[in-house]
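Step 1: inspect the first sequence and its tokens.
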Amino acid sequence: MTTSFTLPTELQQLLTTEQAWHYTVIPKEVNGNSICLYVDESASPNGIADELELLLGKTIILEAASSELIKKNLGKYYLRNTRETAKDKSTKALSAKSGEDFLPSLIAEAKQLGSSDIHIETFEERARVRIRIDGLLVERYAISKSDYPALVNKIKIRANLDIAEKRLPQDGRIFFQQENMKFDIRVSVLPTLHGEKVVLRLLSNDATSIDIRTLGFTDVQLEDYLDGVKRPHGILLISGPTGSGKTTTLYATLKLLNKETTNILTVEDPIEYTLEGINQVQLKESIGLTFAGTLRTFLRQDPDIIMLGEIRDAETAQMAVRAALTGHLVLSTIHTNSAWGTVSRLVDMGVPPFLIANTLNTSVAQRLVRLLCPHCRKEKELARSAFPRHFKLPRPIEKISVPGGCEQCYYTGYRGRKAIYEVVPIDSELSECIKLMNDFPAEIYKQRNIHTLSESAFRLLENGETSVDEIYSILSHAHN
């Protein structure tokens, strides 16, 4: 018998996580009033059927299966908190039938499993809950169509949103507090064809545990980055797609700069972390509190350092440059594919190249890469066809690591993520390139030993920390 099969969420929910692990059983099928369960052939089945019949109120049929099948699918479908870093290991048994307790228990469970987002969505025939773990969505619960509107309304009430408004998108915020957990949740409600979809972003309030030295910078990159941070004025920009860890890098930087002698102001949407000693402003565009408007006020607040959550329009870009020209250090993020691409993005926003050359002191690009689980990764011979066609290997490599699958990584083969960086300190030669709007300065990069994102990604592959599949898209955009 194969050790891998697909377990529909509806079947999965017949048992709670606690029940599945306690009895080492996996649902196979439901026939009328009876449930067929796979049970570990090495376990003693005495009394299991009777106990489960009492718990579930249905006739139980047990079918012996290999320990490997049971163990693998328990780890895959009945996620338990196996992360050493978790403060509370007693993950509460949870089912979509938990009624009033379902929403707070779902949020607590997602937080314990290290999830960043919860997606609650409805379709023509069914509704479901998915959670994002290490960057990928996993289906966790199926919800009946009749229970779905009540769940959405509970979220709206907690987020102070209008429960009568079902035609327009809404955004809100929930402060979640339960036992030893305290954090903010950003709520986004979107009207779709079959009802409202809700996304809950779980925000990590406390920035005191972030350490810039553990994020993923190499020694040379960290030295170049900190040189830019220590300058009294100018712009330091971090680029990358949504969810690439830019805000975490910025807060690790603010933590270093946060001193009694310094006035630090931030404007964000949303405020993802809180730091004692920093003045943080939550963006509210609906009432006119925009990035550009807030930045204009910041300049009258005697700041030393300003952090903008994102440069997303021409007015904000020009205000950021003006703040840097008047003697302030400005930290922000921007959406581009590479550190050098930041320059053309600012030009597209209407900032003259000579002003960029005079104010930009460091440009950084970053991505988050999933790391292979150290408990189950495997080695295999390198096949050149595994890499993008136009990618040139910077160094010969004989073997690569590939994902395995074990209980520690929920049988995904990956555990945790690490940031990779491209750090470009802007010196006089690169400033000249910016003024002349030159293309990617490959020779200058090599002379200064600046590692591109693809080179940083390849280094992780070389060290056996990640797989080719995980970094394929980064390598395909390499400047060879």
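Step 2: inspect the second sequence and its tokens, then contrast the two.
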Amino acid sequence: MTTESRAALTGRDLVLGYPRSTVVHGVSVELRVGQVTALVGPNGSGKSTVLRSLARLHPADGGAVLVDGDDAGPLTARDFARRVTLLSQERPHPAGLDVRDVVAFGRHPHRGRFAGLGPADHAAIDRALAITGLEPMAGRSVDQLSGGELQRVWLATCLAQETGVLLLDEPTNHLDLRYQVEVLDLVRDLADEHGTALGVVLHDLDHAAAVADVVVLLHQGRVRASGPPADVLRGDLLSEVYGLTVRCRTDPETGVVRVEPQRRARPRREHAPPPTTR
């Protein structure tokens, strides 16, 4: 995991809200080349709203979004989509298409209005399929895929877009253990091997500890702490933010922080012995 790199996408002093309420108050977050930044916090803390604002899908009432240090405002939608892509939680089910057809959707910002796929498009699609391990199923219908496999297809679609910044909103949600690990490994590989700047909203704090270079802890629409996982995923901070006792320890074998919320102590029920038979 890298420690210093160029800022690829920055949200500076973002103020975000809805018609009758402000939900994010002056939040700043910086996504750097070759790094994974995880946004964590309780439900309603503003994580997904900040991510959507970084993707220019939620207009800011204050602050600015910068791409490579410059204001993103003047960029056209097509130019912005060539530099930043978002994998959101809400995605349509592309019935009747094969995997390669769905991944090809990612080439839309690079194509003319009525242009077909050219050599550069096919090369980008091939690369995305290879990175996500989908080459063997490129011709399969997406209707035949599991939830985890379909998640990889959508990730490949984002990779085919060939942006330097990838935003992921709860990419491990609804996945079983195997596919959670595969997605997190892919996120880490994209940063380490391909230099992608990644911003990831995660609910699972152990996932954030395992995959992130930087963790941004949000609480009530504000940044409560930001920094390396070991500095942010601390028992005192998490207990304060989540409203329950949380203990954190460092795994002696991996060096990764483990987050251990403490359940309320409840007296054990005494079970009646089974009836005896004569």
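Step 3: confirm your contrast with the notes below.
The mean pLDDT is 92. The two ends are 68 Å apart (CA to CA).
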